[in-house]
Amino acid sequence: MSQSRSRSGEISLGPCPPDEFSGRADERKTLLEVLQEAKDHGQVVMISGRRGSGKSSFLSWAEDEIQNETKGSNCPAIRKEFLETAGMVFFTYRELLTNLKEHQKFGWFRKSLDDPKVKKSIEVGLGIIEKMSSLAGPASIGVEAGVAAARGFLPTENVDYTQLLSSFLQMFRALSEKMVEEDKFMAILLDDVQWSSGPDFQLIKDLIKSLPTRIVLIIAFRVEAENEKKHAELQGEISRFGHKEIRLGGMTEEAVKEFASRRYGLSIDDQTADFLSQKIGDPLCLVGCFNLLQKRNLSPSIGNFKAILPQALDSARCIYTGLDSKWQSRVNSLCILHPPLRLSVISCMLKEEDLVVLKDELDQSLIFRRLETELYDFAHPSLREYRRKELPEGAAVKLHSQAAKCLENLEARL
Ligand SMILES: Nc1ncnc2c1ncn2[C@@H]1O[C@H](COP(=O)(O)OP(=O)(O)OP(=O)(O)O)[C@@H](O)[C@H]1O
Ligand SMILES: [Mg+2]
User: Fold this and answer.
1) Which of 21, 89, 310, 382 is most enclosed, with most CB atoms within 10 A?
2) Domain 323-413's class?
3) Given the CA of residue 53, which atom of ligand 1 is nearest to it?
């Protein structure tokens, strides 16, 4: 069971650790088939579903499955996510190229990365992104700078874009040759593609068209009213090139049983599992529901689940209500910031100066997760989204002006 759990037995809201990933048998099988087919053609697969349906968790499972040396495919996988922050054009790709360059897991892959053709295309890609850094947005500071994304490409940027696309394709082709030599494949996993900026989304669509053999692109897309058009566009491209979409719906009765056992060490009967599958289904709500059960120290009976169901259905509210006042206040102060959240900005926003203590508390917390050293985000974006909507306007204005001061301080120090 999860390392990240509270004393009362509640678990983190973050993506599920691969060894606790439950159910989704058909979806896992489909992905494994797609990986098999990578030997003949480049593969793209879109993991789609509503908020909290388990897309990021599915990516974590897939990443582990691909890289695992004993029970998996023993192949390299690089995972990156788009952040809910406007103006971060090509930021995710820059991270992707940088991580690729530094990939250490497999010796043979390290050598492939030293191949002059591969090396050159990565450097060219990074160079172009650097040159377009006016577009590359606010790096990790978290200031919203949507101007570049909103105004579209200028003619010179169009040239740069074409060069960037071509450097990615050259890199994939050169790596594809290496994969053939080694009888392996390489996977790129991109999460939260619904938040990709216009140019970032364009690059995904262009890459889908010409992915060489043994390169696999796995993308996760949250489907909701505001991005249905984008989803339909991506679906169009996916089916045009004969690729697959894996849709994550509700958890089946069997999956709910497995979930209860793997994540909470609880055994539930068929009737309770059927009730939860019918009435809740989505994993985020299930986590909210089981966490509440644990917090209240209740047994996993159908009667207890029926009693907490009304609260559990609104998972973000349910999670927020379960927090003590210190963490509620922290969530409220930080929900207006755009991810990633720097430790120094968090400390300034919360007016908590002891960075060591703060860092430790964030690392242990079930509602925040560490992205990199000193960079954090909410463990699940729904909590931020929920609190942003609920903040009274006066409080939001005050927090924004405080954030502006904190970010100014940070910029002055950088
Ligand atoms: N198959 C699963 N088995 C066990 N736990 C799961 C499973 N899928 C998701 N979870 C848990 O459910 C919650 C939501 O999952 P996750 O964050 O992966 O959803 P998501 O679809 O990526 O959400 P969003 O659209 O907001 O990004 C997390 O707490 C995660 O640990
Ligand atoms: Mg997610």
Assistant:
1) 89
2) mainly alpha
3) 21
- In the chain, where the domains are located: 25-248, 253-320, 323-413
Mean pLDDT computed over 303-328: 90
Which residues neighbour ligand 2 (ion) by CB within 5 Å? 56
Tell me the ligand closest to 248's alpha carbon: 1
Ligand 1 centre to CA of 162 (Å) is 36
CB of 331 within 8 A of CB of 323? Answer: yes
For the CA of 283, the nearest atom of ligand 1: 12
Token pair listed for 160? 């740069």
> What is the predicted pLDDT for the residue at 402?
94
Q: Where are the alpha helices (DSSP H) in 191-324?
A: 198-209, 228-240, 253-264, 270-279, 283-295, 302-312, 315-321
Phi, psi of 217 (to 5 degrees): -115, 120
Q: Which atom of ligand 1 is nearest to the CA of 222?
A: 25
Q: Using a 6 Å CB cutoff, which residues line ligand 1?
A: 13, 15-16, 20-24, 49, 51-57, 222, 259, 263, 283-284, 287, 380-382
Tokens 């494949």 belong to 185
CB burial class (10 A; 0-12, 13-18, 19+) of residue 201? middle
How wide is the angle at C-alpha 195 spanned by C-alphas 281 and 76, nearest 5°?
80
Best residue for ligand 1 mutational test, from 1, 2, 10, 16 (most atoms within 8 Å of Cβ): 16
Please determine, for residue 288, whether its predicted confidence score (pLDDT) is greater than 60: yes
- Confidence at residue 240, expressed as pLDDT on a 0 to 100 scale: 95
Question: Which residues have CB under 8 Å from 67's CB, separation 6+?
Answer: 73, 74, 75, 76, 77, 105
| pLDDT, average across residues 209-220 | 97
Best probe residue, ligand 1, of 5, 26, 46, 57 (max atoms within 8 Å of C-beta): 57
Q: What pLDDT was estimated at residue 134?
A: 60
Which residue's CA is the nearest one to ligand 1's atom 15?
54
How far apart, in whole angstroms, are the C-alpha atoms of residue 237 and residue 226? Answer: 19
> Which ligand ends up closest to the CA of 81?
2
Can you identify the CATH homologous superfamily of domain 25-248? P-loop containing nucleotide triphosphate hydrolases (3.40.50.300)
| pLDDT in the model for residue 149 | 42
Q: What's the rounded Cα separation, in Å, for the pair 34 and 58?
A: 15
Q: Which atom of ligand 1 has the smallest separation from the CA of 220?
A: 22
Any bridge partners for residue 46, and if so which? Answer: 219, 245
